[in-house]
Recover the amino acids of this structure.
């Protein structure tokens, strides 16, 4: 069945803002620093390039024992042998994704409200990404989720939750004691001069 | 197993150049005029929109007994219950697609050379789209295939072949007697003032 996952530090790639020359280097640095999950996000390359990249990043993640989650593209997740797929509210519905991947693959869903969280839980999601918590240039169209709504979502579902959107070393402290499982970051690792050191610091701060 | 397909008039959608208000209207008109296959191509909408559109277009195609093929997105083809998927050389490799869809779904591959045609045949393709035969604004990056190469491909593989790229009522006569199964068109139906009449004329000319 599906692997047990440590969601503490969930790293999402972003080719546009990364400090490294390649996605592979950026992912390897994040994992070296302690990232526990990698999500591969590619919106502007061909399906073939995305697939070949996913195969390479999967091999890197395997070396670190971290699951690789592919964003949006269920077909690429399946073809590349990824550990999971993550879908937002504008991607394939969670229920359809679960039918496609069966019981062996992780399915994550972006949820910004209790209603979306309950729907995802009912459709077989393994975890939720809740956000955006703060304004960020990474996903311009994401509506902000209040701390109150996050707490409501936490009460409503038992699924693991990671928060996303503007999470960095200055903001992560706000989520301690909320009962969520982890923090998801993009630029707080990807865009840093030393992404491994950045990951290490985030993980230390989150676990302290 | 896979349905037997009449490839005579293979219609590819294009939201950008269609004359109709909606893809659904454009597809219905093409089928009313006699299109025998519909390929749904969407490059710029969300996965959710593409999926929901594919479900609606599938229902239309079913009414006419025509197969619906989804371009590139194997996951959307599977989720929407399409009859097949079509991949180009920049999409998922044919062998990976066949593994994902099993034996029940059609897999088409774009081939511009004998080498690409043989590879597709070896990887389980059901048919080939060969082109672009003429320069067209529809796929700007497509290299042109000579009549000589088309004939070489025809000799090299037994798979059904449709030609694509600049096929219209003025050019389709060039492919009679080449032993190919059908013509694939975009603007010659989609962009015409009366797409049903355009499809009817193309089919009549092709079969005459």
């Amino acid at each position: 069945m599906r692997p047990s996952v440590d969601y503490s530090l969930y790293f999402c790639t972003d080719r546009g803002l990364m400090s490294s020359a390649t996605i592979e280097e950026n992912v390897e640095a994040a994992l070296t620093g302690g990232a526990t999950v990698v999500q591969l996000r590619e919106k502007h390359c061909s399906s073939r390039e995305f697939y070949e990249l996913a195969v390479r990043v999967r091999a890197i993640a395997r070396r670190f024992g971290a699951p690789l989650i592919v964003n949006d593209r269920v077909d690429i997740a399946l073809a590349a042998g990824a550990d999971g797929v993550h879908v937002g509210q504008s991607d394939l519905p969670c229920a359809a994704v679960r039918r496609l991947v069966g019981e062996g693959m992780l399915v994550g869903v972006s949820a910004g409200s209790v209603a979306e969280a309950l729907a995802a839980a009912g459709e077989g999601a393994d975890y939720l990404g809740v956000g955006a918590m703060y304004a960020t240039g990474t996903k311009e169209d994401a509506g902000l989720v209040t701390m109150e709504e996050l707490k409501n979502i936490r009460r409503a579902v038992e699924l693991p939750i990671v928060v996303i959107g503007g999470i960095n070393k200055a903001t992560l402290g706000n989520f301690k004691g909320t009962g969520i499982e982890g923090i998801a970051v993009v630029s707080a690792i990807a865009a840093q001069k030393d992404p491994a050191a950045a990951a290490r610091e985030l993980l230390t701060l989150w676990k302290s």
Q: What stands out?
A: The first strand of chain A starts at residue 9 and ends at 12.
